[in-house]
Amino acid sequence: MFVLRKFNELMKRLPAPLKNVYIVSILVFSVWMVFFDKHSLITHIKLNRIISSIDSDMENYRKQIELIEIEQELMDAETERYVREKYFMSKENEDVFIIVRE
């Protein structure tokens, strides 16, 4: 009885919109979906950040792959020149001069 009386007093103090069962259920559902659910809004935001980070990493790796493919084509076409320029190798009785351009 005491609990029921307290509940009735509490219901009388509530504003009119909060007495509506539909509004209360929509509010509870919204709070649940935003904060507590497995597929909550907060989880989606975190996952979208991770996805964008991975997308940018993928783009960087694609650019690196393109550069490596170009370098490989150059190396296949002119192996001797590539080795001489990249690793400063030379034939016997040959001098190598390194010119640094700034």
Task: Give an overview of the whole structure.
- The chain is an all-alpha fold and 102 residues long.
- It folds into 2 domains: 1-37, no CATH class; 38-91.
- 76% of the residues lie in helices and 0% in strands.
- The protein has helices at 2-13, 16-19, 21-36, 41-77, 79-87.
- Helix 4 packs across helix 5.
- The radius of gyration is 35 Å and the shape is rod-shaped.
- The relative contact order is 0.04.
- The model has no long low-confidence stretch (mean pLDDT 85).
Q: What does the secondary structure layout of this molecule look like, with pairings?
A:
Elements: H1 2-13, H2 16-19, H3 21-36, H4 41-77, H5 79-87
Question: What can be said about this structure in brief?
Answer:
With 102 residues, this protein is mostly helical. It folds into two domains: 1-37, no CATH class; 38-91.
Q: Could you tell me how far the N terminus lies from the C terminus, measured between alpha carbons in angstroms? A: 91 Å
How much of the polypeptide forms β-strand, as a percent range? under 5%
**Uncertain segments:** none
Could you describe the largest sheet, including whether it forms a barrel? Answer: none
- Number of E-type strands: 0
Radius of gyration computed on alpha carbons = 35 Å
Please identify the oligomeric state.
single chain
What descriptive keywords fit this protein?
102 residues; mainly alpha; 2 domains; 5 helices
